Each structure stands twice: as C-alpha cells, then as structure tokens.
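This entry is listed below:
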Amino acid sequence: MEPALRPVLRGRRVTLRPVTGADAPRLAQILATPEVARWWPAMDIDRVRRDLIEADDAVAFAVQAGEQVVGLVQYGEETDPDYRYAGIDIFLHPGWQGRGLGADAVRTLARHLFENLGHHRIVIDPAAANERAIRSYERIGFQRVGVMRRYERGTDGTWHDGMLLDLLPEDLLPEE
C-alpha cells in the first residue's frame, strides 16, 4: 500500500505514521546505536531506504513520541486465505526504551491488523537472547510458540536461535 494511502494510527503514548524517505537519516541513526545494531545489524542508510522504506513485502510506520521519530514498526502479510496472518518487527532508539512506547506501538499496530485488516493471528520473532523484547511482547499478550534453532546469522558469522511468539485477538491485553 502506498504511504499516502496508509492510515495514521494513534496509541496511548505513540503515533504510528507512514514512513517516508525523509525518515531515512533518523532511522539509520537509531539503527547505528549499539543497543539496536545488536539486533538489526548492517543497516546503513541505503539499506534503510531499500529494506524498510521502499520494501514491497512490508508496510512500515515511523514511531513518534510527540513530534520526534523514536523508531519504526512494520508488518508483513501472508495473504493465502487458508494461512492469512501478519508478522511484526520493531526497533526503538535506546533512549526511548523502557517507557512502554514499544508495547504501545506493537499493541496499536496489532489492533489495526485485527480490527481493520482482518488478521486472525500475528507473529513476532525476536532473537531468543533478546529477553527484554520478549518480556515486552508477553506483556501485550503474545504467547511463546517455541525456539527456532539457528534461525538467523549473527554479525559474528554464527547462527543464533530465534523465539517465535504469536498473538490471537483474544490474547491482546489492554493498555497498562
């Protein structure tokens, strides 16, 4: 869906608006912080533009706190009607983590995916070692499905486990 046609989604603490090319420098800056780069490696400004802003297989939103872009949340869809679901990814600037903004962004996007786009299930797949993110997703209502062994290659060249979590509409917990 073209950015101009995407809705602006409002949570309790954040606003999710369609990402634009003008967001690329700020997003690249966030992705370059060591705390974020650990989980989102090798994301220079060209890759931000190509893989996050211009990607055909995902819909991205800038996460705003007030007027400041503090991160990005995106979703991709499995459109086969017999398997239809969405997958979410998110990152936030480390200075804005630990304030409930990520949970609000994921909850807001999940509500949109369930209520407006008709999905019956949402998945998220953080690194199994990213315990902070996993706890945040569980506070929203995501349930652990299991460990995906050797799921992604790390910057050290070795394979690392991922944690698959999913969320059904009845699992989505209200705002804290």
Summary: Residues 101-115 form the longest helix (15 residues). The longest strand covers residues 68-78. DSSP finds five helices and eight strands in the chain.
